[in-house]
Specification:
The complex is a heterodimer of chains A (301) and B (349). Chain A contains 12 helices and 2 strands, in the order H-H-H-H-H-H-E-E-H-H-H-H-H-H. Chain A has 301 residues and is an all-alpha fold. Chain A folds into 2 domains: 199 residues, MetI-like fold, CATH 1.10.3720.10; 33 residues, no CATH class. Chain A has a two-stranded antiparallel ribbon with strand order 1-2. In chain A, helix 3 crosses helix 9 and helix 4 packs across helix 7. With 349 residues, chain B is α+β, with helices and mostly antiparallel strands. Chain B contains 8 helices and 21 strands. In chain B, helix 3 crosses helix 4. The two termini of chain B are 34 Å apart. Classes of the chains: A mainly alpha (301), B alpha+beta (349). Chains A and B meet through helix 8 and helix 9 of A and strand 6 and helix 2 of B.
Chain lengths: 301, 349
């Protein structure tokens, strides 16, 4: 049958049928859980409406967990962002050989999705107290003045602890920087060679071009990628849980403890904590939008 | 002494020659076009003048100064790109002032120069707009103003009109010529459009496979092409196989039909010789004081102001262009047809 002669209602339904699975998925696994979370945050154990769960935010342990989560997220998104940008630059604009670019791109695709328990164990196996890199460093020794062996490179004697904030930052950076590589690479590819050449042709140095053309053009993409990294770190749970065994106060670990019920056991307070995270992410995204509007007026026209 | 000089310039890309033995001298204020098909090396040569490509050997000088290995940002050469290459994050005024700001010129001087440039390109009221708010033609004018704002020694234009529609292209090329003549700036213009090259230039450099085929004024290039490539590439041409009857007298034959040419007949291989005639040099009918050829009409094509008639003569298709006058009598396909042309309208290639 000629499509133009089909009943308009059937035609419209036919056009929309392809997106039905998407809407079913979104409803089942995003909208419904979110509504459940919002309503749960304002209910007591008996299902009655209450604001008491919000009192939980005045608890110093909860405040500390938010601060630690924010610290980890900000540090790893900035460090991962800078590191990832440099790698993406090398891939797209650097003069690295093609085989190297292929390796970096493939590695980024894998590493960005390598989180959770396997990542935690790989870090424990390398930088844990008995990890093989720790063992190598521990065994680099020389003879001291009195003839005894001096081994100055044991990281655990020099303040390093994998099972601490620093360890979490290291582990998170492992998947943060490849994530930055994957998200910023298309933006770097969008920088036209003609812009750089026009800038050079007009007498500008490379630094001047980057400060006045390339970075301002990339700025919205960089900000967007950093927000993604922030959200990725802020919501991560399994890596931190496996690495620290829940000893480090992160909001996600605290939510896990509240919902699982083995230590604290108040799911509604867990919902309230999750609501707090949603609010923080909402503010972050609002800040990003505002900043983007101010710095990239040209995108609005 | 010539202002811009390219001497024995070669460019190899992984051992494949892109430009070979390129020699050119341009005078101050001259407008020169590089004309040729894609991949003939015209843009590579332009990019070597701009400093974006380094010659594999040879020398490039401007005003006597050797710039062969000088970086692009130290050359003071303005370039207009095919893609406009305007910075999307800057307004029109900021784009035009970019080069002046980069070189640390005072704000007042930048403002004055930007206003001058906006007036020059007739976009005085659009300084605050972003490139995305302009049409293609307006964007290319801004790109031109930006390149001129730094007062370059030489202006380079790399197929600046190829992304624009036909009407705007004609308007803008007149604009480019006006501005070039007003400023008296030495200009190199890269194009594959023969009409553009012929209408704009003081001299045209026709290129093929990395080499110069011919350098000359538009009239020289069109009326006396030195190679078959130039003859075929610039305008329409009929090339008919001939055999020489009387070399000193300039008498040859196309099949069995005699043709006399007033130009000299010099050749080494008769089989490679071709009689060249432009379609517009051919006239219908018989004339006693001219060359006459007879054939059969193959097609008659109406092209608006011109009617193109294809005539089969001694096994060769010959094109003839006639002005579409009201009294023009068009022959029918299959009809026997005689055409004539002057002895100095044809030559041997």
């Amino acid at each position: 049958m000629n499509p133009s002669r089909r009943n308009p209602l059937i035609s419209m339904l036919w056009d929309w049928i392809g997106v039905v699975p998407f809407f079913v998925f979104i409803t089942a696994f995003l909208i419904f859980p979110s509504l459940n979370l919002f309503s749960g945050a304002f209910k007591d154990a008996n299902g009655n409406f209450t604001f008491t769960n919000l009192n939980f935010f005045t608890d110093s342990y909860v405040i500390k967990s938010y601060i630690t989560s924010l610290q980890v997220s900000v540090i790893t998104s900035v460090v991962g962002g800078i590191f990832g940008f440099m790698v993406a630059y090398a891939i797209v604009l650097g003069r690295t050989p093609r085989w190297m670019r292929n390796i970096l791109t493939t590695f980024s695709g894998l590493a960005a999705n390598f989180g959770g328990v396997p990542l935690a164990f790989s870090f424990i196996a390398t930088l844990g107290r008995t990890g093989f890199i720790t063992a190598i460093l521990k065994n680099i020794c020389y003879n001291g003045a009195d003839g005894s062996a001096v081994c100055p490179f044991n990281p655990y004697d020099n303040g390093f602890n994998l099972y601490s904030l620093l360890g979490i930052v290291l582990a998170y950076t492992y998947f943060q920087f490849p994530l930055m590589v994957l998200t910023i690479t298309p933006a770097l590819q969008g920088l036209k060679r003609d812009w750089r050449e026009a800038s050079e042709n007009l007498g500008a140095s490379s630094t001047y071009y980057w400060m006045n053309v390339a970075l301002p053009i990339l700025w919205p993409s960089i900000l967007g990628a950093m927000i993604l990294l922030f959200g990725s770190a802020f919501g991560a749970f399994a890596t931190a849980q496996a690495l620290t065994g829940g000893s480090l106060a992160l909001v996600t670990i605290l939510i896990g403890q509240q919902i699982r019920g083995d230590v604290l056991g108040n799911p509604n307070e867990g919902y309230a904590l999750a609501l707090g995270m949603v609010v923080i992410m909402a503010f972050t995204i609002a800040g990003y939008t505002l900043l983007k509007r101010r710095t990239a007026r040209w995108l609005k026209v | 002494m010539s202002f811009l000089k390219l001497t024995n310039v070669y460019k190899l890309f992984t051992e494949i020659p892109a430009v070979e033995d390129f020699n050119l001298e341009a005078e101050q204020g001259e407008f020169i076009s590089f004309l040729g098909p894609s991949g003939c090396g015209k843009t590579t040569t332009l990019r070597m003048v701009a400093g974006f490509e380094m010659p594999s050997s040879g020398q490039i000088t401007i005003s006597g100064k050797d710039l062969t290995y000088v970086p692009p940002n130290k050359r003071n050469v303005g370039m207009v790109f095919q893609s406009y290459a305007l910075f999307p994050n800057m307004t029109v005024a900021e784009n035009i002032g970019y080069g002046l700001k980069a070189s640390g010129k005072p704000k007042a001087e930048i403002k004055q120069r930007v206003e001058e440039m906006l007036e020059l390109i007739h976009l005085g009221n659009l300084g605050a707009r972003f490139p995305s708010q302009l049409s293609g033609g307006q964007q290319q004018r801004v790109a031109l103003a930006r390149a001129l704002a730094i007062r370059p020694q030489v202006l380079l234009l790399d197929e600046p009109l190829s992304a624009l529609d036909a009407k705007i292209r004609v308007e803008l090329r007149q604009e480019i010529r006006r501005i070039q003549q007003q400023l008296g700036i030495t200009t190199i213009y890269v194009t594959h459009d023969q009409e553009e090259a012929l209408s704009l230039s003081d001299r045209v450099v026709v290129m093929s496979q990395g080499r110069i085929e011919q350098v000359g004024t538009p009239a020289e290039i069109y009326t006396t092409p030195s190679t078959e490539f130039v003859a075929r590439f610039v305008g329409q041409i009929n090339l008919l196989p001939i055999h020489v009857v009387d070399q000193p007298a300039g008498l040859v034959k196309v099949g069995q039909q005699p043709v006399r040419t007033s130009r000299s007949v010099n050749y080494s291989d008769e089989k490679a010789l071709r009689l060249a005639i432009r379609p517009e040099e051919l006239n219908p009918g018989h004339r006693e004081d001219a060359n006459n050829l007879t054939g059969v009409v193959e097609t008659v094509t109406y092209l608006g102001s011109i009617v193109r008639i294809r005539v089969l003569i001694e096994g060769n298709s010959v094109l003839m262009d006639l002005f579409n006058e009201r009294r023009l009598r068009l022959p029918a396909v299959g009809e026997s047809f005689e055409l004539n042309f002057d002895t100095d309208a044809c030559w041997l290639l």
